[in-house]
Design goal:
Length: 360
Amino acid sequence: MLDVALRHSLGAFTLDAQFRAPPGVTVLFGRSGSGKTTIVNAVAGLLMPDQGRIVSGDRVLLDTAAGVRLKPHRRRLGYIFQEGRLFPHLTVRQNLGYGAWFAPKGAARADLAQVVDLLGLGALLDRRPGALSGGEKQRVAIGRALLSAPQLILADEPLAALDEARKAEILPYFERLRDAAGVPILYVSHSASEVARLATTVVALEAGRVIAQGPAAEVLSNPAVLPTGARDAGAVLSARVIAHHDDGLSELSAGGIPLFLPRVAANPGASLRIRIAAHDVILSHTRPEGLSALNILPGLIHEIRPGGGPGAIVAIDTAAGRILSRVTRRSATAMGLAVGQDVHAVVKAVAVAATDIGAG
C-alpha cells in the first residue's frame, strides 16, 4: 500500500492531493499541468514538497512534520522515464546489470533470466541502445528498474514518446509487469486507452487536486473527471475469449453476451479487458435487424447525463457490464429516453481498436 498526502506551491500552481494506492497499477490520470509528475517526483525524492507524508508499505519515505526525508537512493524505487535513458556505451545486458548493481545487499530481487523472459529481451542482450527501437529501449528500462529490487515502480508517461505502433508493442509488457512482477506501480498517463488497459486503481487529478479515485471502469465512465470530457468517456468490460473464426473475427463472452472483435492476440479461455468508447455506441428501443453491426447488448438505462453542449451520455446496465453511449440531446428527446427504459446498445466490431483490448 502507498499512502500519499502532499501540499506544494510553485508560482500560481498549488498541489494539494491525498490518495491511497492499493497493490497493482495505480494510474495518476489528468491533463497536462494537473500535478501528476509533481506527485511522482515527490514520491521519488526528486522534489521536496512544502508539506507531506509518503508511506510505502511500512516504510516512511517522507514526513515533513517529523523531519523524515529519505534520500532518493534509499527509497527502494524503480523509475521509468518517458525516454529509456539507457547508457549508450553499454550493451543491453550491461544496462540491466546496472540496475542490479543498485539492489541493496541481501534484498530479494528478480532473477535476470526471469526478467529477460518476462520482457522478451533475449535477442537484444548484446546490442547497444543505438540499435534498439523506442519500444525495445523502454522494455530494457523496465527490466533495469525491476532488477534494482524496488518496493515500488514509478512510470512517468512511459509511452508518451512512442508512436502508436510502438505503444501497441510495449503495452502487453506493462500488463505482464502488473500481473507477474508483484511490484506495485505508480503510473502517470493522460490516455484513456492506457488507463483502461492497465489500471487497478485510477486517481484523477485536476488543477493539483484529486477529483475522483476508484476502479478504471468507474472513473472512465464519468466525463466530468476526464481530460477531454465526454470525448474520452467509455466503458471497460471484462470478457473471455471463446473462439477465433476463419473470417478474422474473435468471439468473446462478456457476462454471457457474445462479442465479436477483430482477431485478438489471446488464446481461447483467456480473460481480456476491453474499452468501448461512448461515441462508438448507438441505441435502439428494439433489437435491430438488418444492420452490419454484430454486437448488440440489451439493457436498462441507468442514467442520462446532459452535457454542456448538444450531447448527452447515456449509461446502460447490461449483463456484460455498464455500457456508455454518447448521443445528441435531440436524439435522446426524439427517442423519449428515460431512466429504467429497455434499450439495445449497438457496437460495430471494427470500432474497438487493438489498443483498447488488453489482458484482464
